[in-house]
Amino acid sequence: FESSCETVEKLEYFSSVSEHQIENIIRLTNNKSCELDPIPTWLLKQCIPALLPIITKIVNLSLHDAFVPTLFKQAFLTQILKNISLSTDEENSFRPISNLSYVSKLIEKVVDTQLTNHIQEHNLDESLQSAYKKHHSTETAWVRLHNDILSELDDNKTVLLVSLDLSAAFDTIDHSILLRLLESRLGVSGQCLNWFRSYLSNRTTRVIIDGKRSDIKRVNFGVPQGSVLGPKLFTLYILPLGDIARKHNVQFHIYADDCQLYISFKYENRLKTIDRMESLMHDIKTWMTKNMVKLDDDKTKFLVLTGPRRDCSDFPCLSIENESIVKSESVTLLGVELDDKLTLKSHVRNVAKSCFFKLRNMRKIRKCITEDAARIMVHSMITSRLDYCNATLYGLPNCDLDRLYSVQKLAARLITGTRKYDHITPILERLHWLPVKKRMEYKILLLVFKCLQGTAPEYLSKLLKKRENKGTRADDKNPLVIPRFKKVTQGGRCFGRSGPTLWNNLPDNLRLETSFSIFKRRLKTHFF
Q1: What is the pTM of this model?
Q2: pLDDT tens sequence across 167-202
């Protein structure tokens, strides 16, 4: 590891926690229990006054003695079918679900909070990693990636994007390497490092199927499944990936085990760009081999993103360790299907198709449920799907967005029981639903508000620039700088341009609001 322990602020001891802190953690957790728990979680919550001193003492003893009891390192594995259409005879059709002791998760939450505070205070995290972080999500990651690509295309450049997928990444982590990284890169030492050493060592698991238990098996690799700290430890383990990408001057974004690498270039320089990306991939594969991480070659794809008139049929294949990767026409990134022209037509089509299918099934039971139940069902299955990453659909042609509007109209009529030819505007107003296009603007403006209030990822906030106030009337009307662009269909769609444009068009009293909940409510009223 390149970082030296001498240059990193150390985290040597965990701080004790009070009963009040433990009580707050307990109240925010769900009621999920494990077979190892002496009493169900819901009952434990009802007995908080009596049990709180004991639980607090257990947590603090674990932190001070740098010791995790054996009972807290045992896991019970059950399995669920990934999809009802899959065969029950195939092992890969099932997803393992790991259950751990409830009190062990309380200890982990305390450790996670203190470790996160240390990392944030000393800027030790990867800013372009969006998984398991406050104010970050797949949506913010996709907005940034979408913005970067559109900006480069607007500048008449081509973008080479490689989507990496790690194979069983959470299960292959080497504990000794992880501990060295915690010490050398993050400054975890002393009692804290000993606690993590105890936490990772001597972990066991057993499988439960139909009430029958398997023999206990030792777990020597991987982050603990079903744990609080597991996902965080994984993202820390792959921190060097960002260093490798920066060394080759390649842009990237990471979400858990999904990594996107992308380079912009003039098309005539495509051979040099291929060599550059292959050199990066060689270094990444070398790092993975040394650190017990395997690349899923079947899911690794590359895409050449260009303008609508560019022919890329002569673009060469990408070779990784003597294995050729054929250029794809589209790739699914963070739940959005990205095509090589960035039209998002296939994504819109797939969303509409999926929603129409669900609405047809809902119609069969609509008469058996109340309007409130129908509204909840539609929100969970339809509107949440329509709203996912809809900020990046801003600026698409009406002919594409009409598909989504048709879904919304059908969903509204399903809830209210109105007829096909009834005017839709009063129906949407009754449900207090914004039309599809307005929902996109609404989402963008919420992101802009968060950026200006410091509750959005730094990589999004950097895309917005406040205008220097010279006391002119124009400065008051346009508080955010609107970047210049060449093409409405490319530069005009990116968040760095659409966000300031929409924000500057808001009335002054709305822009000056500082409470997110009030701004959200008033913004929706403004659109109506």
Answers
A1: 0.90
A2: 888 999 999 999 999 999 999 999 999 999 999 999
Same domain membership, residue 115 and residue 37? yes
What are phi and psi for residue 137, nearest 5 degrees?
-160, 175
Question: What digits encode the pLDDT tens for the residues 105-146?
Answer: 999 999 999 999 999 999 999 999 999 999 999 999 999 999
DSSP 472-504: -HHHHH--B-----S-TTTGGGSHHHHHHHHHH
Structure token pair of residue 347:
């994504």
22-73 pLDDT, tens per residue?
999 999 999 988 888 999 999 999 999 999 999 999 999 999 999 999 999 9
List Cβ neighbours of 483 (8 Å cut-off, separation of 6 or more).
491, 496, 497, 500
Domain that holds residue 260: 141-167+249-339
Whether residues 80 and 186 fall in one domain: yes
Distance CA 157, CA 169 (A): 34
Tell me, yes or no, whether 62 and 206 share the same domain: yes
Here the tokens at position 115 are: 């470790």
- Between the alpha carbon of residue 56 and those of residues 107, 111, 311, the distances in Å are 9, 13, 65
